[in-house]
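Run log, item B.
One chain of 154 residues. Sequence copied directly from the ordering sheet:
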Amino acid sequence: MIDRFTNWVKWEDRNTLEGINYSGIYCIAVSKKSLNTFSFIPELEYIGMTNSKGGLKNRLNQFGATIRMKNINHGGADRFLYQYQDYEAIKNNIYVAVCSFECDTKNPSPNDLRIMGEVAKCEYDCWAIYVEEIGRYPKFNDMSNAPKFSKKKK
């Protein structure tokens, strides 16, 4: 499965990723060192998925709007934002890689529905691989230890 992921790209270059308009899995990493070939590394801080009509591009834009405090509507990004509140200071250290699944989410056939189920399973498989290799959940998938910015006491 790891070979289905794109290479890591800088957050700002996310729209150049192959398969960005389809359903799939996305991984967010934060690293001061340059990342290239995808792997399940400790710097990987969030694994998400989407089967939405807007595909990975739309879901990543929701993540981006949340971490820029424009519209806090993404749970994982809300937890990310709790730790990284200064987008300008962190943006050059954010990387993303995706694993896309070509399917029609607007008018899904039975085969498309099966593919959408594969996407959901793939997210769980990614979490399992990460836990096996790193020994814990990605930081912002660990809901019991990663508070949300939007719930922060003012």
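Observations after the first pass:
- The radius of gyration is 15 Å.
- Residues 2-151 form one domain.
Flagged for discussion on Thursday.
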